[in-house]
């Protein structure tokens, strides 16, 4: 259909293009003053002033954050199995072992009880994911971490501006990673931002992203080339001024969808949580979940409504890990969820068409 409603739609406008042009004219394209400014501005706007370090991707942010916090071979880090593979990948890339646990089926975030049950003498940290833009239960996870002497790392890739009990995500753990990929709630074109509680961890993170050096040719660590460019930072700085408004639109769109949809389980917002709706994810009833692919194809082909399935295979079951685990809620979610458009570019007519299409397809299934 010519008026297809995409499941996600990055917003890149004249201000972002002007920012890129401004940087290109300076000739300072690699990590430079734009990156430093973006780090300061992100810290002030998103994580209550906590030191923030820009990198070239969200995955790099997780990987380097783990290394900077001292995670390595022989360690275990507990992660949810229902998330993008980058969460587990980042742990494995340090030489540590990701321990996959189940989620709460209402919020799709990691189940604190499952976390506590998975702790062993090798466990060093818990890494919850604020999935779809809903914060994990940081109260319960913080209590578990304190009880067992564990660190907490936040995968906040999808949760720019989300809150738990009034506190911003990205301010709970030793570090937190925000993705700046094009489909996220704000983007730098590509990139990631890591907020860090401990100045020494932040310093190691800065070393690791830049070949292990702060002073040129004085390499203190074996590091990586995971720097953000000034071009990407310039885009991110503009987007940072807009993300709060976009978040409000996402929340408004989600409220309309929740009020109108029938026959599916709409997103739950836990008491005290502020959901920023990176994805608006619904769940099909068990009876028709096996026909998900057919129903989503109908939404696209007959009604012009784009959807996404995040995530159809639990991370532990991917060929890259292939770890057997009894994770009933993860299995249900992976088999039955799909995400509908909720992005700020939706019109009132778009929302009406999405609701009518889903209700029709589900009722006729």
TrEMBL record:
<dbReference type="GO" id="GO:0008483">
    <property type="term" value="F:transaminase activity"/>
</dbReference>
<dbReference type="InterPro" id="IPR015421">
    <property type="entry name" value="PyrdxlP-dep_Trfase_major"/>
</dbReference>
<keyword id="KW-0032">Aminotransferase</keyword>
<dbReference type="Pfam" id="PF01041">
    <property type="entry name" value="DegT_DnrJ_EryC1"/>
</dbReference>
<dbReference type="InterPro" id="IPR015424">
    <property type="entry name" value="PyrdxlP-dep_Trfase"/>
</dbReference>
<keyword id="KW-0808">Transferase</keyword>
<comment type="similarity">
    <text>Belongs to the DegT/DnrJ/EryC1 family.</text>
</comment>
<protein>
    <submittedName>
        <fullName>DegT/DnrJ/EryC1/StrS family aminotransferase</fullName>
    </submittedName>
</protein>
<dbReference type="InterPro" id="IPR000653">
    <property type="entry name" value="DegT/StrS_aminotransferase"/>
</dbReference>
<dbReference type="InterPro" id="IPR015422">
    <property type="entry name" value="PyrdxlP-dep_Trfase_small"/>
</dbReference>
<keyword id="KW-0663">Pyridoxal phosphate</keyword>
